[in-house]
Structure formats: structure tokens, C-alpha cells
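assembly run, all chains below
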Amino acid sequence: MYKNVHEYLEELKKELEGCDPALIQDALSDAEGHLRTALEEEHASKPGLSETVALKPIIQKYGTPSEIASAYRAIESHITPVLAAARPKDTRSFWARFFGVLAEARAWGAFSYMLLALFTGVLFGGWALLGGLVSACSLLFIIGLPIFGLFLLSIRGIALLEGRIVEALLGIRMPRRPLFLDKNLGWTDKFKALVTDAYSWRALLYAVLLFPLGLIYYGVFGLLFVLSLIFITSPLFELVFHIPLDLFGDNVFTPVWFLPVVCIAGFFLLPLTFHFAKFVGRVHGGFAKSILVRK
Amino acid sequence: MNSGIASLVLLSVLGQADEPMYGYQIAKFIETHDEKIPMMKQGALYPVLRSLESSGLLESFVNPSVSGPPRRYYKITDIGQETLNHWIEIWEHTKDFVDNILKGKTDV
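ok done. output:
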């Protein structure tokens, strides 16, 4: 018998021990949403009923923590993020693997993430810095408290959205459900819960860090990609269209004997860029997971 | 009810719904058709919903709720509707086959 929803969720958390933290967060969020909605309905039809009594039939229908944990484990065992699906051992030769990266969805996903990072970094990081500053200043006035609370809520929303982008493009399992605040809490307690929850601050830190990271990712990978294309197409542009290489404002024609070398270098630089994107994507995904998934 | 049948039931409920539905609403709808012996715990529907969403058969969005935590609404996608039609055909065929066996209509 569970006294309240919180106790049920604690038990469910224990039953899910060892699972992916993002799955645990989703399962808790699903359970909390369902149980609180059912409780709300029960209280509306039978006012004055204690939470413990009202919960009993609700949990009977919903399932015990152990039943629910088994259901999540069973389903999760055959669902993996689209780009993280297990692949058989790669038996291709070194060169096939080196150039084959250009046909890998995961490499394109990571590369797209690096380019998209300019947009997400500026948007999320900009909001974290600017919104944080404005709402922190507003704390000087009494109206500042709700503004700061709303700001922290928006940051948690951004963290969820960024998690979805990370999962879709980098193939790292991230939370798919938002974190709830206990609706029975008053406004002051909700604000306290938001401010004292380490997750709010970790999400804020992530959003701030995404600003410089987004600029770096976009700059490095955009440059490498464009350079590869310029190198590959240099014989075509210089010999056929007579368009020189524009190197930092200086128009330079590459010596004809050197053009094949430049072109071949481009053909190597392109897959190297994608291998590098995959590597950085993996590191960034691990970093995002360590910060954006509640422990 | 195994997760395959649960998937068919959930797709079918959402395929017939005029508007997107949230998890609790779906569970209550199923409950009204399954009053005597519940075939499945309500909580076990959520991972199936998640599975259908990650397969692209459903899509979802979160809306705030006046009375409780924000709710995740699900709606069937075009691929989901096509898949549902296909699954219904398979289900009808399987049902006829099993019925025939149970009634002894098939030659052994």
C-alpha cells in the first residue's frame, strides 16, 4: 500500500535500477502524469477522500511498480534510438570503412548536429545568458520571483528539446518526457523546488555552454566541409571556368601540377571531416547525457 | 494482452479518434470496453505508446493542463494509419484461422 504518489514513484525508481537513466525519467514521468490525473478525477467525484485510499484502486488498474518496470524493460529492449541501432561487427577493409563513412546515417546525423549547433547554441545559450541576466536583475523587485521561476522552467523545456535533438541526430538515448513539479505544492514551494533542484542549474549550465560550443562546432565543421568541397572541385573551377582559389582575399591560381594533389587531399578531407564529426558527436552526446539526465 | 495486440488496440483507438488523446484518456477509453477482466495494466500502455511513437506510427506533443501535470497528446500518423489497415487485415485473417481451428472446421 502506497501512502502517496511520491512513495509509488520511489518504488518504481528502485524497480528500474540498472536501466538507462533516460528511460527511468520517462517511466517516472508517465506514471506521475497518469496517477496525478487519476487522483484529480477521484478527488473531484469523492471530495475529502485521503490520497492513500484514493490511490489503492488507481494503482490496481495502473499496475504495481514491479509490473510497470517489467513492461518498460520488455519494450525498451527492442527499441533503440534510430541512429543507435546495434550493427553487426564491421568487417570492411580500412579504406572501405574510411570512405564508407559518407554513407553512414550516424555520421550525417552528427555532422548535421554540428551545423545545427550554431542555431541551437545561439538561441538556447543566448536565452540562458540574456534571460538569466534579465530575470536575475528582476529579483531585486518582488515581481522578480515568478519571472525567475518562469525562466528556470523555460530552461528545463530547452533541456528537453535539446535532448530530443541529441537523441535524433547523435543516437544517444535521452529523456522523452518532461520533469513534473508536484502540483499539490503551493507557488512558493514550487519556486523553492525549482531553485533547489540541481537539474534546473545543470540545464542552465548546459544551455550556457552550448553557446560557445555551437559556434566552435559550426565554425570547425563548416570550414572543414567547405574546404573539402573547394579542394575537390578546384581543377574544375581553375582549369575549366578559370576561377581562382580565393585564399583570405587573395586570388590565387594553384600550379597545374599541384591541382591533382589538392583534389585528392579534398577527397580525403571530406571523409575525415565526417569521422571527426562522429567522434565529436559521441563525446558531446556523453556530455549532454551526463548533464541533462537526472541522476 | 501482449505488446503486439496492445499496439493494434492503441493504433485503432487513435485511428478512430477525432482529436489527439493523452495517455490517461486512452486508458479510460479502453477501460470502458474492458470492464470485466482487465486485459492489461494501464501503466503498460505507456511504453507501447512510446514504441509506436519511435516507430513513426504515432506523433505526440505536450500541452499544459489546468488541473494537473502537462499532458502528452498522441495522434496517429499517415504511416500509422496505413499500418493499422494492414494490421487489421492480418488480425481478421488470424482470427478466422484460429476460430476455424477452435470450431474444428479445418481438416487435420
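The first strand of chain A starts at residue 245 and ends at 247.

Chain A touches chain B at residues 26-27, 30-34, 36-38, 40, 61-63, 67-68, 71-72, 74-76, 78-79, 81-82, 176-178, 180, 183 (CB under 8 Å).

not gonna interpret more than that til we talk
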